[in-house]
């Protein structure tokens, strides 16, 4: 005799169920099996498909599903609003960064010494002023926790702006760059 089809918790969530809905409408699972993908999560709970279909045909399920969808939409909108605020904050932070945030320029004599000694003064000058960029970001960044990508974008934009300022401060060292990254030299 064939076994009645069973659905896993994952299957239920694929159908729109939330953990809360499962606890309310199917508090007891019908069977379980070993989790073959990742044993640290314990056994996989199984639910008879007929019980799932019965639960899905109730008004309570429809009401809970509607609430879950509404919560998802609100969460999505809140995430989008947060993202827009962070992007606007990053833009403001970059726009406010100016030459006044860089420390005193290295003297022309020191630049010449670096050129004579090392043949290229770009890296030491860049390193000297990168501390200023990092300090500016640390002191003025009130955006809270940024994702890796957001932090990388912010740093890239501040670096690009700093390169523009350095080209003005040290024209003989930072000639027009096409797409050369100073920090990589």
Would you kindly provide a written description of the structure presented here, covering whatever features stand out?
With 185 residues, the chain is mostly helical. The chain has two domains: 6-57, no CATH class; 83-184, no CATH class. It is 60% helix and 6% strand. The protein contains seven helices and three strands. A three-stranded antiparallel β-sheet has the order 1-3-2. Helix 4 runs parallel beside helix 7 (148-169) and helix 6 packs across helix 7. The longest helix is centred in the middle third of the chain and has 38 residues, at 59-96. The model is unreliable at 177-185 (pLDDT under 50).
Q: What is the string of helix and strand elements?
A: EHHEEHHHHH
Give the overall pLDDT as a whole number. Answer: 88
Strand order of the largest sheet: 1-3-2
Radius of gyration equals 29 Å
User: What's the helix count?
Assistant: 7
Record field, number of beta strands: 3
Uncertain runs are: 177-185
Helix content: 55-70%
Structure class: mainly alpha
Overall geometry: elongated
Terminus-to-terminus distance: 73 Å
Provide the domain count.
Answer: 2
Main beta sheet strand tally, sense and closure: 3 strands, antiparallel
Report the β-strand fraction as a percent range: 5-15%
Secondary structure layout plus pairing:
Layout: E1 6-8, H1 9-14, H2 19-25, E2 31-33, E3 44-48, H3 49-56, H4 59-96, H5 108-118, H6 122-140, H7 148-169
Antiparallel strand pairs: 1-3, 2-3
Helix pairs in contact: 4-7, 6-7
């Amino acid at each position: 005799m064939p076994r009645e089809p069973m659905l896993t918790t994952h299957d239920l969530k694929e159908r729109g169920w939330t953990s809360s809905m499962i606890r309310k409408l199917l508090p007891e699972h019908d069977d379980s099996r070993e989790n073959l993908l990742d044993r640290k999560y314990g056994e996989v709970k199984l639910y008879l498909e007929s019980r799932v279909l019965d639960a899905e045909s109730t008004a309570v399920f429809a009401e809970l599903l509607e609430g879950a969808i509404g919560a998802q939409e609100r969460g999505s909108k809140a995430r989008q609003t947060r993202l827009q605020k962070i992007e606007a904050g990053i833009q403001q932070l970059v726009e406010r960064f100016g030459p006044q945030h860089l420390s005193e320029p290295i003297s022309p004599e020191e630049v010449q010494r670096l050129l004579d000694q090392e043949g290229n003064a770009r890296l030491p000058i860049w390193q000297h002023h990168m501390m200023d960029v990092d300090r500016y970001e640390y002191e003025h960044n009130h955006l809270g926790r940024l994702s890796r990508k957001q932090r990388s974008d912010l740093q890239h934009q501040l670096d690009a702006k700093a390169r523009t300022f350095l080209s003005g401060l040290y024209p003989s060292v930072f000639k027009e760059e096409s797409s050369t990254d100073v920090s990589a030299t």
